[in-house]
Design a protein that fits this description.
Elements (H helix, E strand, L loop, with lengths): L1 H16 L3 H10 L5 E3 L5 E6 L6 E7 L2 H16 L13 H6 L5 H24 L2 E2 L5 E2 L17
Antiparallel strand pairs: 1-2, 2-3, 4-5
């Protein structure tokens, strides 16, 4: 009886520390980038902890995970410098490198939200651009809140 109890506890302790492959895949799908998370309603948010403090710097809410991750990368770079593990190290701009210095939390937040908003706007513009179909015509998504005008209605 004791052997069964000890065996069960030893398997549960080793099983509790190990994450299955399916769980890892689910975590990767839920958090595609470091430093961001998704809200229940679909927005992506980014925040970062200040070094040697318990407080966090709020970096904003974005419609795409890439925009949130870029905002996080900007803040992380200003906090940690060149040694930071970035999501997108290829987007490190030389002007940012030369501009890096000891900044306040508010200044870091401002710079990170500017980058995130710019990326979010570019991503939104890409998704909102007109889509061409196979016939060669360009079709736009109609605004459902707008009343149809007489020239666009097809009452033939």
């Amino acid at each position: 009886m004791e052997g069964g109890c000890c065996t069960a506890s030893s398997t549960s302790s080793s099983g509790g520390t190990e994450i299955s492959n399916s769980k890892r895949k689910q975590i990767r799908q839920d958090k595609p980038y470091r430093g961001i998370r998704m809200r229940k309603w679909g927005k992506w948010v980014a925040e970062i902890r200040e070094p040697n403090k318990r407080s966090r710097i709020w970096l904003g809410s974005y419609s795409s995970p890439v925009a949130a991750a870029r905002a996080y990368d900007t803040a992380l770079f200003y906090l940690r410098g060149r040694s930071a593990r970035l999501n997108f190290p290829e987007f490190l701009v030389e002007e940012v490198v030369s501009d890096a210095r000891d900044l306040s939390a508010a200044a870091i937040r401002k710079k990170a939200t500017e980058v995130g908003a710019r990326v979010d706007a570019l991503q939104t513009a890409e998704h909102a651009s007109p889509v061409s179909n196979n016939s060669g015509r360009v079709s736009e998504k109609p605004d459902l809140n707008e009343y149809p005008s007489p020239e666009t209605s097809e009452d033939n």
